[in-house]
Amino acid sequence: MGLLNWNSSQHYEHAGDYACTQCGKPTPLRAHSGEPVHKVCAEDWNDRNPNAPRHLHEERDLGTARFHSDPPRKNRKEGVR
Ligand SMILES: [Zn+2]
């Protein structure tokens, strides 16, 4: 399983940390669903749930429906730094 791409700022919750749903430790990170989870914990969950429903974006498998990568950007105006 590949690593998740969570470059989008939507994954960082500035309002504060919540307990990760996987390890219970505080994290400012959020999955696409808004679920608080560390990126590594989400990747680990994906590894342990290979049969979970997949999230497809234009035919590409970006991970599971629960934890998946950001779709690739078509234009680079916003830039990723
Ligand atoms: Zn965690």
Give a written overview of the molecule.
This protein is an alpha+beta fold and 81 residues long. It has a domain at 9-64. It has one helix spanning 39-48; strands at 18-19, 26-27, 54-57, 60-64. The strands form two sheets. It has a two-stranded antiparallel sheet with strand order 1-2. A two-stranded antiparallel sheet has the order 3-4. A hairpin with a 6-residue loop joins strand 1 (18-19) and strand 2. The longest helix is centred in the middle third of the chain and has 10 residues, at 39-48. The chain is flat. The mean pLDDT is 91.
Structural class computed from helices and strand pairing: alpha+beta
Low-confidence stretches: none
Radius of gyration: 13 Å
Question: Could you tell me the strand content as a percent range?
Answer: 15-25%
Annotation field: number of helices: 1
Q: Kindly, what is the distance between the CA atoms of the first and last residues, rounded to a whole number of angstroms?
A: 24 Å
Strand order of the largest sheet: 1-2
Which geometry do the CA atoms define? Answer: flat
SSE series: EEHEE
Bound molecules: zinc ion
Number of strands: 4
Percent of residues in helices comes to 10-25%
- What profile does the largest beta sheet have? 2 strands, antiparallel
Average pLDDT, to the nearest integer?
A: 91
Region (Disordered): 43-81
Biased composition (Basic and acidic residues): 55-81
What labels describe this entry?
81 residues, two-stranded antiparallel ribbon, flat, binds zinc ion
Blueprint of the fold:
Blueprint lengths: L17 E2 L6 E2 L11 H10 L5 E4 L2 E5 L17
Antiparallel strand pairs: 1-2, 3-4
